[in-house]
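Figure S7 source data.
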Amino acid sequence: MSSDAGLQYPGFSKAVVRRPGRSIVFGLSESSDKLPVYEKALEQHDHYVKTLQECGLNSIILEASEEFPDSTFVEDVAVLTPECAIITAPGAKSRAGEILEIRAILEDFFSCIEQITSPGTLEGGDVMQVGTHYYIGLSSRTNREGARQLITILEKYGMTGSIISVSNFLHLKTGVTWVGNNTLVVARKFTIPADFKKFNIIQVGEGEGGAANCIRVGDKVIIPAGFPKTKKRLCHAGFAVVEVDISEFAKIDGGLTCLSLRF
Ligand code: CIR
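Tokens for the predicted citrulline complex:
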């Protein structure tokens, strides 16, 4: 496992995204009473997709689904690996139906599709890939059975997984993301487990909790706009940083990784 820690970040070439619908105002939220403004969310989403494209990803843009207010957060409904796609079993009841359409989309790109099944629950925001190893957060959305099923699937394809407890955060990747070069970006409230001691840790700046959820694409690290201290730390560590404003999505607990499935 430790040999995976220094691996190059995977060379993704594509991203699946789903445009937000007007129903985004009904998205689940634990952190704020503020409602996203639909028009602004659309604008920010366009800019997000453009940034992924500029970083070299071809985008597969799905139409909005009004039926599922949180469906723009496509990351939660699948875990994509180089060997297979795994359709998840969202722990949030209102999101369970989101998995149906995503399977049909992914069938065009993956010959092997697996599925997490009840009583297991798992959301992609709880899965952090580091090389061929996947850290799985146990959260209010992902249970031990869901994590166990995912580890069994990963092992079937020659990959590995292990469990990390998550508290204080919606998902594991709300508190920590891997940006390659053996480096994790970590929120200040995130309790660093012993398993993570082998990594270089970049702690986000004071008052910049939202900055822990970043995306590495090619040689760039995309961070949410408005976190200058964290940006400086990443630049200082040698990363090329690009900012994207996702303030409307943050109002309903969404971060940068949740808005795409990269593979
Ligand atoms: C939810 O609560 O499911 C959405 N409002 C936010 C999902 C964010 N997803 C993620 O961090 N992977």
